[in-house]
Write the structure tokens for this entry.
Amino acid sequence: MKPFAALIVVCSISLVLAQNDDATPQRQRWSADAVLSKVPTEARARTNPFQGNSLEARAGGKLFEQHCAECHGPKAAGTRHAPSLLGTEIRQATPGSLYWILTNGVVRHGMPVWSKLPEQQRWQLVTFLQSLGAQTTDAASR
Amino acid sequence: MAVGLFTSSPRLLPRFLELFFLTLLLFSCHSSFAQESPYIVTYDHYLEEPGNLEVEYFSTFGTQRCGNDFHAFWTEFEYGTTAWWTTELYLDGQTTFSDSTLFTGFRVENRVRLLDREHLINPVLYVEYEQTSGADKIIKEVEGHDSESDFDEPNGVLRQEQDHELELKLLTSSTFKGWNVALNPIFTRNLSPSEPWEFAYAVGASRPLALKALPNRCSFCRENFIAGVEMYGGLGDAQHLGLPGTSHYLAPAIAWNLPSDWTIRLSSGFGLNDNSHRLLLRWGLSREFSGFGELVRHLFGGRE
């Protein structure tokens, strides 16, 4: 019985720590502004090979639904776990900056790294995020 | 009839309730699309997403020259405690043909990401405690001087040996142009006194069959398949370091990540020397459930 007791203790500690660590909403909800300011200059300057391509944006939309909507919300409007991706800071961010954040994540604040998606798929996601920005701008100007 | 069963076997009721409770919890969660690698022995540096629980079932069919072939199986519960820490529980069992079926033990492991950002080589520290019997045949890793002849005896004899092991791995992995290359040096210590440290390795390479995603959801599109190969084996122990008396395997593998959030993995491992099993045929089925941690926190009155 002892090993099972030890096992339960280990599992409980994990859950308690998780509750007190960066999974709590107050710390988890990282600011897009703060993260964008950390992107190296070289990474910011990278250009999106799929810029403005609606087909790639659609593919990016599918990838967003599969991997990102769980935390950022189905319409990218944010949840209590992760910020909205419809704000000005994301709209004004360079494609290179978005790509860098996707690749490196914001690990200490709950966003995993997404380098496991091939480079092309990360650019497809960036294209989708930029298309969201364009939609928001269009809606605002109307 | 069910009530009759529980009154005649009162120990069954709590077990049934545990199972029912766990199933209910899992079905209360949303499933989540996973992008799983095809590796079964090797680890890359990607951890479980925070708050998600991945439930995985794996089988290994192994041939045995001086004994009966076997079917070993294990279930993994992998929980993303944070984005940099994953904790996992394994439950192992096996059936040896013309012999018996046994529960062979459990393992608890933790993987901790050491660096915040992506680098050329990304290290993750892996610490595992395992309590298994000598009849454990899942061959999740091959260590020290492990060889096919270790399983020559029938289960009744093998199960008498009890192992308490501490296993440390440094998981290093790199992803470039769609390729993932992972190398895991392994250090194992049986916690019984006078047992030396044992050494092992696992190395793997994999790549999706298509690097770009198609715009529509599809089951059979190439982006959902990741093919790879892994090689693993023992490197001796602290007293006899080196390749003599060790066994090694080469295993092509493939993972199929379905849009319905299931992942299927297949691998056929071929023994590379006389100490190895001729064939280790493995398959696995897994599903990721998002928001499991949050659900548990709510159940136990956690903060909003």
In short: The mean pLDDT of chain A is 83. Chain A has one domain: 25-141. The interface with chain B takes residues 3, 7, 10-11, 14-15, 17-19, 21-25, 55-56, 58-63, 66-67, 70, 81, 103-113, 115-121, 124 of chain A (CB under 8 Å).
